[in-house]
Amino acid sequence: MRKGGGGMDFITRLNSICRPGEKKRLCEAAFDAEDDALRDVLKKAGPFAKLGEACWRRVVLAQGFPEAVAGRLKALGAAPEAGVFVLEKNGAVIGALTLRAGEIFGCAVAPEWRGRGYGTFLLRRALRAAGPGPVCTQTPPGNAAMEALLRRCGFRPQEQALPAAGEEPARAREAGAAAGPLSLPQKWVRGAPDGDGENALAVAHAFLRTHVRPGAFALDATAGNGHDTLFLCRLVGAAGRVLAFDVQPQAVENTNARLRENGCGQVGRAVLDSHANLAAYAAPGSVDAAVFNLGYLPGGDHGVFTTPGVSVPAMRTALELLRPGGVMTVCVYYGGPQGMAEKDAVLAFLTGLPPEGYRVSVRDFSGRPGCPPIPVCIEKRAW
To answer: Model pTM?
Structure first.
């Protein structure tokens, strides 16, 4: 919206033609679109101003937990901890969702605000902040409202086998046969590896989620826009540490901004340096996980990209820095001008690692059109 008096003229016309319900929807749409100029005009505009405050809502990642906020979170069944997204309306907390390391641990909206789309708004905003990568959650049997919410946000149920006889959870066995057939929580996934929905990033994240624990020390050798750095920060938690590297100032700035915005600025940071210098930042055997995404910076200068002459020695160094049992993932993006040469060199190096020292898994999507990225997952043997 342009500055000046045109905004108020626009609102005057809207006031004359919009019914109250339409005005409310317009206010909500303006807030949801994060259009500051339009919001400011609506707040000052006659009938819109009267109903506007009832429409202002936002989702934020909680940075601190004042007593009132902590109490409200507990009332909603959410713990005041890292990874809590809160839904605010008129300055009050009316909903909460915990999203940590790719898993949702709860999504709740205050009873008086349910059935109005706030749960969908909360979940979609949290997923947007989380960035790409798979997300999973569980719902208790028969929770139709939560199941409908998950479907609206792109989740799908995941098949799971019932436990064999004698392996049921203790609480289920204690309930006795009178309780009827065993009901397990339903697992839901969004963007997870499964058939045609599988991709290199999902494979790498699923592998890291299995191996990286809270308190770990991780390296993101190619920070890019910070999505993997943030993912690692959520895996290692407040007790862990993540260092990210990039040779482009834009990438370092983007990554550090993303970490701050998501409450992870104290856990991870990006430095303006090449992954050729990893050994200057960590001792051999001290790193729990390392991540490489080869290629160029999305949205950046495509003339700046990784090369095998630097990538392969950096991977060799990263493997030396890993502790026994540590892991490394490499996503090979080879669509650029130097991509094929780097792909061949990297795959030759990784698949040639001695099997007595490393377990290497390569996932090939060559049946798909274009140049689908190739994920490689490496575990440094501890046995």
So the answer is: 0.53
